[in-house]
Amino acid sequence: MDLCHVPATREKGWYLALMAPNVKGPNYAWLDPSRLYCHPQGLQDCVADLLQPFQGDAIDMVAGIDAMGFILGAAAAATLQKGFLAIRKAGHLCVQTVAQPYSDYSGREKVMEVRTDAISPGLRILLVDQWVETGGTMRAAIELVERLGGVVAGVAAICMENSEGGKWIQERYKCSHCVPPRLQPHFDQH
């Protein structure tokens, strides 16, 4: 699909066809959604689908997870007319932070951090990332928000896999993703 074509019928998830498969090997994610972000209507429809379940919900701020969650998170924040908070990999913020260790989808041990002055007790935050594969990265972001007294208003990602960690998140938080039920098994079995 070219980056200008818009299908006549746009059902939820039509833009998933814009994503490109991994051609670089096992150290990379199996799909690359960045091409989706280049398509103006695809990006708009993706953000609209992610936010649809949260219409009418109290959301004070949107937080995106380093790095690709920044794109969707900032787009969601702009759509909702809310502020945007970057949850970063450790070592990138030059202000007071709180840190949380985690294991990412590849099993690598990492540390995530967030500035301490952006989240006040009771602040309702929508967490956004590109993908929830094992759930480790999102769970670390949830822990950071809650440790600072914030409330996770919801979790949104292009795909939330039905992994143990993905299920843990979906059982505890209001979630939104873009993968239609008929395609979910394909995304879970990559």
From TrEMBL:
Tell me where it resides.
Cytoplasm
| Record Gene3D superfamilies | 3.40.50.2020
Q: Which top-rank group of organisms is this from?
A: Eukaryota
Q: Name one GO biological process term.
A: purine ribonucleoside salvage
Keyword terms, alphabetized: Cytoplasm, Glycosyltransferase, Purine salvage, Transferase
As recorded in UniProt, its EC number(s) are 2.4.2.7
Task: Give the signal sequence positions.
Answer: none
Instruction: Please list the reactions this protein catalyses.
Output: AMP + diphosphate = 5-phospho-alpha-D-ribose 1-diphosphate + adenine
Q: Where does the record place a coiled coil?
A: none
Molecular function terms in GO for this entry? adenine phosphoribosyltransferase activity
Per the record, what is one GO cellular component?
cytoplasm
Q: Which InterPro entries match?
A: Adenine_PRTase, PRTase-like, PRTase_dom
The protein's annotated pathway: Purine metabolism; AMP biosynthesis via salvage pathway; AMP from adenine: step 1/1
Phosphoribosyltransferase domain span: 56-178
Which family does this protein fall into?
Answer: Belongs to the purine/pyrimidine phosphoribosyltransferase family.
Q: How does it assemble?
A: Homodimer.
User: What is the official name of this protein in its record?
Assistant: adenine phosphoribosyltransferase
Q: Which gene encodes it?
A: Apt1
